[in-house]
Amino acid sequence: NKSVMLNNCVGCPPVCYNDITDARKISELNKRWPQLKYKDDVGIDKQYLWKKEFLKHGSCGIKRYQQPAYFDLAINLKDKFDLLSTLRNHGITPGSTYQLDDIEKAIKTVSIKVPSLKCIEKYPGDV
């Protein structure tokens, strides 16, 4: 549905998140969709990010895509739209400072629309 953002859906029936237990799937997700806000072991054990994103976005299409299919689709999209390669192709590499406009222009070359970007500061003591 291109008319609305699939966001904060109310599941009918209500949707639950099932922890991912398959080691191969966890490895694939951690490689392509790392939980950067948490240490690796905590992120994998608690699956905060994956759970949040599935309940916020994946639950919208639960009648068509069950949880495993949602994460397979996320992995396939990540592979198709490799953001780091796109940024590198535009001279933007991790560890340096760039203008927001330059980053948005680079991403727009593969996404068509201007991305919604924000910075999240990690404070000392955050998990």
Structural notes for this entry:
The protein is mainly alpha-helical. The protein has 2 domains: 23-80, no CATH class; 81-112, no CATH class. It has helices at 23-32, 40-46, 48-56, 67-80, 83-89, 100-111. The protein starts with 22 loop residues before the first helix and ends in a 16-residue tail after the last helix. The model has no long low-confidence stretch (mean pLDDT 84).
Q: Outline the biggest β-sheet.
A: none
Structural class of the helix and strand makeup? mainly alpha
Count of β-strands: 0
Number of structural units classed as domains: 2
Spell out the blueprint of helices and strands:
Blueprint: H1 23-32, H2 40-46, H3 48-56, H4 67-80, H5 83-89, H6 100-111
Concise structural overview:
With 127 residues, this protein is mainly alpha-helical. Helices cover 46% and strands 0% of the residues.
List the defining traits of the structure above:
127 residues, mainly alpha, 6 helices, 46% helix
